[in-house]
Each structure stands twice: as structure tokens, then as C-alpha cells.
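Q: How would the C-alpha cells look for this protein?
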Amino acid sequence: MNFDDMDNADNKEIIDNTMEYKPLIAGESIRAENDENITAESIDNTVIRGNVGKSARQEANGQPKRKIITRRGLIRVLGLLAAFLAFIAIALSPVFVLKHVNIHGNVYLSEEEIVRISGINMGENLFQLATDEIMQTMAKDIRIDQAIVKRKFPDSLDIQVVERVPLAIIKCDYGYLEVGRGGIVLDAHRTLAQIPVPIVSGVEVADLFVGDTVENEQLSKVLAYLDKLSHDTAIGIAEINIADPANVTVYMNRSVQLKMGHIDSLQKKLDITESVNREVKQAKHPIEYVDARFDGSYSIKLKE
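A: Here is the predicted structure in C-alpha cell form.
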């Protein structure tokens, strides 16, 4: 081998190990070692993915993004925290303590009794009083049909009650029972209570307590009759005697007897009862009795 051949061999080896630079034209592919075709566009995409695709790879690998809190967001969080702390300070202020309870709608229950039923205590913080719980507590009392409780700032509660109205008092084995619509026993007393509702005599029940229902057909007819009367007329009746269901007697105030006849005719004589109540109030002479045993009419017998 001469020197020229050696030079050619060396040059060949150098050429084989040297990559010749050629500009890559868009769309033109080159051959990589793994036989993949690479274009200018794919190189550009690879560069882009390498620069801005890191967060996407982090999400793919289950790594969460980093959240950056801006200055505006930080100010907003601090503002909300300050408002919350201010609210707590105001809520716990001694200005907002319960000092007054205003009760509306009660007729038979006293204000003291309603406050006791509600379970509230004076001096409690007004914001800490759960009005829904107070209403639920009051509704558990059989004498209260509905209660609405509202805060009245800065130091009061308003309680609106709808009572279950007692219609009559009946004798029982241990005393007397207040009975309301449907025969529900609303209250019990050892002695005859001073309640402005008529007592129904001629009937007696046993083993009944508050919340129970009186199941007596004759008493049910009397309660239905009393429930339809006006409040003024109902409280004008002192007693209803049903010992003889065929000859019911209603005793009005001032000891005026109203002879009603059969117990089944009570519902037909509501208007007569209302009219007699007015007659008794306006009478200039004492009335001995009123006879209303005949449907549609009545007569008045004056005392001599």
C-alpha cells in the first residue's frame, strides 16, 4: 500500500464517521437510527412539548399543579377572615342577650306557662338561640297547635302561638279533664279549674290522661256542637247536661236553662243557641228558661 492509498483509507474512515450538515427542508424526512421519519414539523412539536408540556406530564404522572395565590386573592381571604371575626365579636357582645319575650295569640295559656314550655332562659345570647328547636319543643306540648318564634334585635324574641282550644271539661276518675276538638285530652286537674269553657255533666270517663282521646259517642256530639258556636256564645254556657240524651239541657250564664231536646238535634240548633245568648244578655227581666225542643223556634219563660 502506497502513501496515496493510506491517505484515501484515512479519508474514507473520517468521512464515514462524520455527519454531513445539510439544511432540513420543511416536509423532508431524515432517517434516524430507529428508522423513524422525523420532519421539521415534528422537531418543532418536540421542542414545544419539551418547553411547555411539563405540567401535562406532571398531571399524567399524578403530580398536582402548583397553585399561585395572587395578591388580590390574598387580600380577599384576609378580608373574609376579618369580617368573620367581626361577626363573632358582635354576636358575643352583651348587647345581644335576651331580655324580653313578646307572646301573641295565647288565650288559655299564660305568658309564664308559654315561656316555661319553650325552655328559653333570659340572658341567653340571641344568636345562640335556635328558633327551629324552640318551635319543635313547643309543638310537643299537646295544648299548642303551632308556634312561630322569631328574633327581634337587639334583645327580644317574638312568639306567636296557636292554641288547641279546650271545648269542654268532663269528670274523670281522678279529677277533671280539659277536652278539645276530636276528644283529645289537653290537660288534667285535681279540682274544677277556672277555665271559661262549659262542663259536660251526665258523663264520666276513666283511665284517660293528657294526649289520650275520649271515645264517647254522646260526648263527641256535644264537642262538635260547641266547636261550631262563636267564642262569645261558647263561653256564655256554664254547663251541658246529657244524663238523658233525649232531653239535653244547656245552662247559660245567669242560670238560664235552655231545653234542647234530643242530643242528635244539637247541630240543627246552633242559630237558636246564638240567638238565646243575645237574648240573655239583653233581657231586662230575669229569664227562667228557654224552650227550644222544637226545631226552628223557641219560647222564653220569664221568672215571676
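Residues 112 and 244 are 41 Å apart (CA to CA).

The radius of gyration is 47 Å.

Upvote if useful.
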